[in-house]
Amino acid sequence: MKTWVPSASVAEVLSDLPGVECAVYNSSTPMPEGIEEVEVWVPPLMPVPDVPGTLAKMTSLRLVQTVTAGVEPYRPHMPAGAVLCNARGVHDAGTAEWAVGAMIAVLREFPGFADAQRRGEWTYHHTAVLADSTVLIVGHGSIGAALERRLEGFEVEVVRVARTAREGVHGLAELPALLPQADVVVLLVPSTPETAGMVDAAFLGRMRDGAVLVNAARGSVVDTDALVAELRTGRLRAALDVTAPEPLPEGHPLWSAPGVFITPHVAGSTPASERRTLRLIKAQLSRYRAGEDLDNVITASY
Ligand SMILES: NC(=O)C1=CN([C@@H]2O[C@H](COP(=O)(O)OP(=O)(O)OC[C@H]3O[C@@H](n4cnc5c(N)ncnc54)[C@H](O)[C@@H]3O)[C@@H](O)[C@H]2O)C=CC1
Ligand SMILES: O=C(O)C(=O)CO
Question: Which residue out of 91, 195, 280 has the highest number of ligand 2 atoms within 8 Å of its CB and is therefore the one to mutate?
Fold first, then answer.
């Protein structure tokens, strides 16, 4: 079973699965021989240069197992007869932890105090606080649930939104009415045609004065120009792990917008997620070889 994997550590973890023949292919290695015989592809964290062209040449492909929860580089280009599975779950702890840290950093003004420290200034003033606030999770799925568990103890009210309503979770249609109630809005929706630019001027305009937008999902979810314009009024603040584009180029207006805290898409990728990714890949390939049902299959309704 010809399998392309993103690193020697993935090849190593699969080495005791009989019949699995691994070749390493990632953004910095040349494409190995025999693309038309590849049955299973585990693409790297950073997509290879031409994902659609690569998939089109994989005429024997049956399974793409991503190492990310996001599948937007692959989903629109999947060949008929091949299954796409994501890494739902493996980045939950890191991403949820980042979201808690980011909202506290912004509310308690840690970046501003760090600047004052570098200047040697004692800038005593009161800040906002997470306690007694309302945290709206837009895209309450695997990471959203992990975030909610971590918010227990912070004495906040959590409001949940998903694509469709279920018990305790509001549907997307209710979002406009919920936005003005939230002190912190955390984006955790996948990047899909439906979520592209969902955080536009109207969305931001409905947010409460002084509220914080936390984006741990994808940059494509936010209309960057609208966000920059809103940040410049000083009415909202933001914490962004993801931006459009990525990397954010030098001189981009987001870098210098007031009230924004930016990290370079580091929330989910941690030593914990690396260990969990290896376990997931091994379990999935074992199931695939045994003809068993796979986890995390991306269905048409994803
Ligand atoms: N910053 C980082 O390092 C990381 C970012 N991510 C991003 O987080 C996303 C979410 O990951 P998971 O929680 O594993 O996904 P999930 O599939 O478990 O949950 C996604 C949630 O979004 C909801 N949703 C989908 N479309 C929606 C819409 N149009 N409006 C409102 N809700 C909608 C779904 O109903 C579901 O509740 C990933 O797709 C990925 O893009 C994931 C891991 C790490
Ligand atoms: O899993 C994902 O989608 C990520 O963004 C991890 O970096």
Answer: 91
User: To which CATH superfamily is domain 92-262 assigned?
Assistant: NAD(P)-binding Rossmann-like Domain (3.40.50.720)
- Is 265 in the active site? yes
Ligand nearest to the CA of 297: 1
Q: 91, 140, 170, 265: which is the annotated catalytic residue?
A: 265
The Å distance, Cα 132 to ligand 2 centre, comes to 30
Task: Give the number of whichever ligand sits closest to the CA of residue 146.
Answer: 1
Instruction: List C-alpha distances in Å: 65 to 2, 7, 281.
Output: 14, 14, 7
Please tell me whether residue 185 adopts helix, strand or coil conformation.
Answer: strand
Distance from Cα 1 to the centre of ligand 2, integer Å: 27
Q: Which two tokens stand for residue 135?
A: 């945290």
Q: Which pair of structure tokens corresponds to residue 274?
A: 């690396």
Task: Tell me the fold of 2-90+270-290.
Answer: Rossmann fold (3.40.50)
> Quick check: bond before 247 cis, omega within 30?
yes
| CA–CA distance, 190 with 90 (Å, rounded to integer) | 15
Give the span between the Cα atoms of 182 and 7, in whole angstroms. 42
Q: Where in the chain is the domain with CATH 3.40.50.720?
A: 2-90+270-290, 92-262
Average pLDDT per block of 10 residues along the chain, 302 residues long: 98 96 95 97 96 98 98 97 98 98 98 98 98 98 98 98 97 98 98 98 98 98 98 98 97 98 97 96 97 97 86
Q: Closest by alpha carbon to 184, among 210, 213, 150, 217?
A: 213
Q: How far is the CA of 77 from the centre of ligand 2 (A)?
A: 19
Residue of 143, 169, 262 to mutate, ligand 1, most atoms within 8 A of C-beta: 143
pTM exceeds 0.90: yes
